[in-house]
Specification:
Elements (H helix, E strand, L loop, with lengths): L2 H12 L3 H14 L4 H13 L3 H14 L4 H13 L3 H15 L3 H13 L3 H20 L1
Helix pairs in contact: 1-3, 2-3, 3-4, 3-5, 4-5, 5-6, 5-7, 6-7, 7-8
Length: 140
Amino acid sequence: MAAHFGLAVAVKNFAFDIRVAISHFTEIVERKPENFFALTQLAILHYLNNQIGTAIRLLHRVFSLKNSYAPALTTMGEILRHIGRPEESIRYYERSLKINGQEIFVLKGLWQAYFETNDMQKALQSFQILTRKMTDLEEQ
């Protein structure tokens, strides 16, 4: 799991009350409203707390400040794919890949989104890139 998504999941798992984690990141964002990292973490926490609309609005806020922030693009791709909108998620994953290179988490999401849209040719291509990347990492 990518670091940007992993941090919020860890906070959720270890903060006995997700509201505490949300409150923490909300305070950070209130002090520094342009903090892309904190906004993205807050969006992830809202998503994990089943507040999908809030999560998507926070990510759009990130995009209004910096539309090329790869962690937010990837997070939007994940959320859209998980709520059954894989066609839309592909656009976000592809934008993230252009910025972030071949990050495994993004490649995995893109492969799954292509599979979910029945674009088997692109799903296979994405899967092959993903497996090559994973093999390269194992050999390092």
